[in-house]
Amino acid sequence: MKKIIFLLLIFALYNCQSNASTLSNEINIYNLKSKNMYMLDLDTSAEKIKISDKSILNIFPITTIENDKKQLFIEAENDGVCDVIITSNNKDYKLRFITGPFFQDNKDNLTLIDIPEVIKEEKK
Asked: Could you tell me if 112 and 77 are in contact, meaning their C-beta atoms sit under 8 angstroms apart?
């Protein structure tokens, strides 16, 4: 009996961990590395975006051929904590972005855009 309860407990905890998609009824926390760019996928199209501190984070909806705006382009400018509220036609998302020197890839719908820096040559 103990083994069955233990297995059910493990299954329940595993099921909660695998739900990494953006939820509309909770505050979703994302850890970002400053001075980088990211793509965030949503279930619905973003209509209105409220950013608490634009010096830390810039967010732009991406318009595709279908004009769906289901992806967001995120620029992590400086270190800090920024709260974002995204309003769509049937869901409201509450997001908290923590930017700093380290990046934790903890969400399935967040993609790091790796663009190499340009190396400047010194003129003599």
From this structure: no
